[in-house]
Amino acid sequence: MSRILKADETISITNSRKLVDLRNRIIHGYDSVSDDVIWGIIIRHLPVLKSEVEQLISED
Q1: pLDDT, tens digit (0-9, with 9 covering 90-100), for 3-43
Q2: Residue 27 belongs to what H/E stretch?
Q3: Buried b vs exposed e over 12-39: b needs ≥16 C-beta within 10 Å?
Q4: What CA–CA distance (Å, rounded) separates 27 from 24?
Q5: Residue pair 41/23 in contact by the 8 Å Cβ criterion
Q6: Residue 3: per-residue pLDDT
Q7: What's the whole-model pTM score?
Q8: Is the Cα dihedral 39, 43, 49, 51 positive or negative?
Protein backbone atom coordinates (compact mmCIF):
# COMPACT_ATOMS: atom_id res chain seq x y z
CA MET A 1 0.00 0.00 0.00
CA SER A 2 2.76 2.45 0.88
CA ARG A 3 4.52 1.86 -2.43
CA ILE A 4 1.31 2.38 -4.38
CA LEU A 5 0.55 5.65 -2.64
CA LYS A 6 4.14 6.87 -3.11
CA ALA A 7 4.10 5.95 -6.79
CA ASP A 8 0.89 7.85 -7.51
CA GLU A 9 -0.14 10.61 -5.14
CA THR A 10 -3.53 10.97 -6.83
CA ILE A 11 -4.66 7.61 -5.44
CA SER A 12 -6.80 8.06 -2.38
CA ILE A 13 -7.49 5.12 -0.08
CA THR A 14 -9.44 5.79 3.10
CA ASN A 15 -7.46 4.92 6.23
CA SER A 16 -4.46 3.76 4.20
CA ARG A 17 -2.07 4.39 7.10
CA LYS A 18 -4.28 2.34 9.41
CA LEU A 19 -4.35 -0.49 6.86
CA VAL A 20 -0.57 -0.60 6.79
CA ASP A 21 -0.43 -0.45 10.59
CA LEU A 22 -2.91 -3.33 10.87
CA ARG A 23 -0.94 -5.43 8.42
CA ASN A 24 2.22 -4.85 10.44
CA ARG A 25 0.48 -5.72 13.70
CA ILE A 26 -0.93 -8.94 12.27
CA ILE A 27 2.44 -9.93 10.81
CA HIS A 28 4.59 -9.06 13.80
CA GLY A 29 2.27 -9.28 16.79
CA TYR A 30 -0.44 -11.69 15.81
CA ASP A 31 -0.95 -12.90 19.37
CA SER A 32 -2.06 -9.42 20.44
CA VAL A 33 -4.75 -9.02 17.76
CA SER A 34 -8.29 -9.55 18.96
CA ASP A 35 -10.70 -11.52 16.80
CA ASP A 36 -13.37 -8.93 17.64
CA VAL A 37 -11.17 -6.12 16.35
CA ILE A 38 -10.49 -7.96 13.08
CA TRP A 39 -14.18 -8.76 12.65
CA GLY A 40 -15.10 -5.11 13.25
CA ILE A 41 -12.61 -4.02 10.61
CA ILE A 42 -13.99 -6.56 8.16
CA ILE A 43 -17.57 -5.41 8.69
CA ARG A 44 -16.95 -1.64 8.78
CA HIS A 45 -13.91 -0.95 6.65
CA LEU A 46 -13.53 -3.74 4.10
CA PRO A 47 -16.63 -2.71 2.09
CA VAL A 48 -15.22 0.83 1.79
CA LEU A 49 -11.83 -0.47 0.67
CA LYS A 50 -13.46 -2.82 -1.84
CA SER A 51 -15.48 0.04 -3.32
CA GLU A 52 -12.42 2.29 -3.59
CA VAL A 53 -10.34 -0.42 -5.26
CA GLU A 54 -13.13 -1.24 -7.70
CA GLN A 55 -13.37 2.45 -8.59
CA LEU A 56 -9.61 2.65 -9.15
CA ILE A 57 -9.69 -0.44 -11.37
CA SER A 58 -12.56 0.92 -13.46
CA GLU A 59 -10.67 4.19 -14.06
CA ASP A 60 -7.97 2.42 -16.07
Answers
A1: 888 888 888 899 988 888 888 888 998 778 888 989 999 99
A2: helix 16-28
A3: ebeebeebeebeeeeeeeeeeeeeeeee
A4: 5
A5: no
A6: 85
A7: 0.73
A8: positive
